[in-house]
Amino acid sequence: MPRRASGRVTLQDIADRVGVTKITVSRALREPQRVSLPLRQRIEAAIAELGYIPNHAAGALASGRSHSVALLIPSLSNAVFSDIQRGIEEGLRAAGYQLLIGHTGYSILEEERLIDTYLGYGVDGLVLSGTRHTEHAERLLRRAGVPVVETLELTPTPLDINVGLDQTAAGRALTETFLAHGYRRVGFLGARMDHRAQLRMAGWEAALRAAGLSTESCLTTPQPSSYRLGGEMLGSMLERWPALEAVFCCNDDLAAGALFECQRRRLAVPDALALAGFNGLDIVEATTPPLATVVTPRRRIGEVIAERLLARLAGQPCRPHSEDLGFEVRCGGSIG
Amino acid sequence: MPRRASGRVTLQDIADRVGVTKITVSRALREPQRVSLPLRQRIEAAIAELGYIPNHAAGALASGRSHSVALLIPSLSNAVFSDIQRGIEEGLRAAGYQLLIGHTGYSILEEERLIDTYLGYGVDGLVLSGTRHTEHAERLLRRAGVPVVETLELTPTPLDINVGLDQTAAGRALTETFLAHGYRRVGFLGARMDHRAQLRMAGWEAALRAAGLSTESCLTTPQPSSYRLGGEMLGSMLERWPALEAVFCCNDDLAAGALFECQRRRLAVPDALALAGFNGLDIVEATTPPLATVVTPRRRIGEVIAERLLARLAGQPCRPHSEDLGFEVRCGGSIG
DNA sequence: AAGATGATGGTTAGCGGTAACTTTCGAGCA
DNA sequence: TGCTCGAAAGTTACCGCTAACCATCATCTT
């Protein structure tokens, strides 16, 4: 009895070809040692010959496992997320899991939509950037019964697994480095102002408050970061607060843009103005002077996520918890 | 009869709750106008109350359509791909399609694996970066019966839809711009050396050959591009070919790294050395001087991909073809 | 008033796999 | 020789959903 004419090759086609039942073919693929060698070889030959593509939708439906994990990231062009992705992917691949990616564009609504989609495909785990989600998304996640990782920032109330670093402490530490070098008028320059940027800014404020200094010189925008924007915003800040001695930019891109603007204005860094960024991307070492920054352990975060996820997928239970992987303040040459 | 205790909420649970059959619930979701208003409202209430997550794996299995499209990209951190992604996503979302992303790390083997995975999930379309694939991948794609887009570069033998630009012509045009400005010793600096980098290099060679000039000053590496690497490689080139007048870097990151290195060496750009990159990313306008580059219509490429894909998904047939969206050479200030 | 019509909802049969149990059969052992 | 046992393959049922067809009933026709 022929299968639907148009359709793709199924297990049944392979089975017919070899003269066995489809469960045997299924086993030859998933548990080869359970099928005798000669038969297995004939099955493999038939698979190659007919060009069989396993239907994961069907497999996931029947077994409840898909051997894939979804990672939802706010931005594709931000190197922060690509480092984390690499760490996760490397760990998962070794265990036979595929990493699927979704792009949220910093929108928790879009995140919700993707959570729904990927859970609907039956992914075995989910990694989210950040700890803020829609109410509906949290409900979905709780009911889903799969391990969920929230990453980058830390939260006292993790949904499940939380791996990251204390963004506020990092912002504070960097600001205190400025203070330790004698700077007093330290501004904050922020773009996008997603939750992590807000936390860093809170750290900046806390450090200044603790030192009894003004937190007035603060310029933020919801626009996405770019080199151009960093330059423009630095211009605005200098115009508005000419006595500014140092600027903490909420990420490296903005800081680099600010540095380029200083170069155009022939404003010496760090003598006339000190600068710092956040993340420790490639560019901070390329500029002259190298930029001060907070180096975040992104690769390591990805690796730890993969480890924790695999442990859970292997059946190891654990209760919600946070892991703080720390950070490192680096002075570069832009704080002097 | 109770459903499995542990499991998630299914259509049947909603149906039981409301007192109808599951097909009615299914219709309420997919074709609301086919279900009477009062009943629909009761169904919607039950869905909200019980927290139903549709199982797309099952839906895709039963219907053969998943309302999702996969995009496979070589690198997450490269802004080139994020621009394309944005263009595609915007177009697809309006039509109710989800864009799923896979990361190949410039490996066609990994690409093959992801093609297999996503086809196995029943995606309705596939967008690939580049035109080179494994033999097995091409076989899978041909059999899959879904629209396939190859993008960025052009090929005389597209699998299906091909949208991009002529990388060789672009490399040649940029090199000819150097020549038009009187430069004679024009080097090529390339990293990663994926297929597109090779095509650009071929354009550089062709332009120099046509002008009867030497193609000796060429330095390439399989390492991934970075600012640091651009600086280091420029150093090597200057050491080896001190008389070099201009360098065509195979992308903007390398060019920026090279420019930073020139600044460190107090080598005036473009007076002592001219530089150019490729792609037209944000950074080329941020540096001093702005970098010469080839601006590629990435966003537009993404939009056109979405258009073509949607036309095909709506049933409009078409035979394999290529679309050339062109490019624009921009001199910045680094060619003088 | 009888049949045609359209709106609404139900029935049946799968999509392509896998889990769990069962059958078959030859080897090993007392 | 009779029995147990394990390896190898088969049977059955079902995962959650949708296509295609069918049943029902109020509303129109003429």
TrEMBL record, chains A, B:
<dbReference type="InterPro" id="IPR000843">
    <property type="entry name" value="HTH_LacI"/>
</dbReference>
<protein>
    <submittedName>
        <fullName>LacI family DNA-binding transcriptional regulator</fullName>
    </submittedName>
</protein>
<dbReference type="InterPro" id="IPR010982">
    <property type="entry name" value="Lambda_DNA-bd_dom_sf"/>
</dbReference>
<dbReference type="Pfam" id="PF00356">
    <property type="entry name" value="LacI"/>
</dbReference>
<dbReference type="InterPro" id="IPR028082">
    <property type="entry name" value="Peripla_BP_I"/>
</dbReference>
<keyword id="KW-0804">Transcription</keyword>
<feature type="domain" description="HTH lacI-type">
    <location>
        <begin position="9"/>
        <end position="63"/>
    </location>
</feature>
<dbReference type="GO" id="GO:0003677">
    <property type="term" value="F:DNA binding"/>
</dbReference>
<keyword id="KW-0238">DNA-binding</keyword>
<keyword id="KW-0805">Transcription regulation</keyword>
<dbReference type="Pfam" id="PF13377">
    <property type="entry name" value="Peripla_BP_3"/>
</dbReference>
<dbReference type="InterPro" id="IPR046335">
    <property type="entry name" value="LacI/GalR-like_sensor"/>
</dbReference>
